[in-house]
Amino acid sequence: MIERPYEEIVIHDKLIISLKQTVYRYPNEKYPYLKTYTNHPEKHRGVYSINGNYYYPDILVIDLRNEKVIMIAEVETKSTLNEIEAEEWKNFCHLSSHFALFYPQGYEFKVRQLCKNIKIDSFIEYREIEGKFKLEKKRIIF
Question: What are the CA-CA distances from residue 47 to residues 8, 39, 64, 69, 128 (Å)?
């Protein structure tokens, strides 16, 4: 895992908190059986892979009725858009039927290069404007 510069750590962790409070706000009235866990800045919930490794994705949504992983999301920053992280994304794709990759605005070409052989179902570009995050779902064609 690549160590992020401090300014990227701040953006990364703020976006994770924002996503938990907005996009992945579980449990809620409609889905009281779902629960969102975050693993930054502290690890709260991980998941085992078939090969026995334990992973801590940035965001993890679990169905509490059967402990099934419903969704995984990773928030990347400029310095973590690299081959090492892309290998981790491959593992996350096998841990859940839904995997969302959040990346900074302006890095779509880099993401496309890194994800040629990875089946990610949601690409979301983010940018911060006046302390709030703007998200845009992208359709990346290879």
Answer: 25, 11, 14, 8, 30
The pLDDT score that the predictor gives to residue 114 is 96
pLDDT tens-digit series, residues 17-32: 999 999 999 999 999 9
C-alpha atoms less than 13 angstroms from C-alpha of 72 in its C-beta half-sphere: 23
Does the pLDDT value for residue 101 go beyond 80?
yes
Predicted TM-score (pTM) of this structure: 0.94
Fold of 6-138: tt1808, chain A (3.90.1570)
Hey, where are the domains in the chain? 6-138
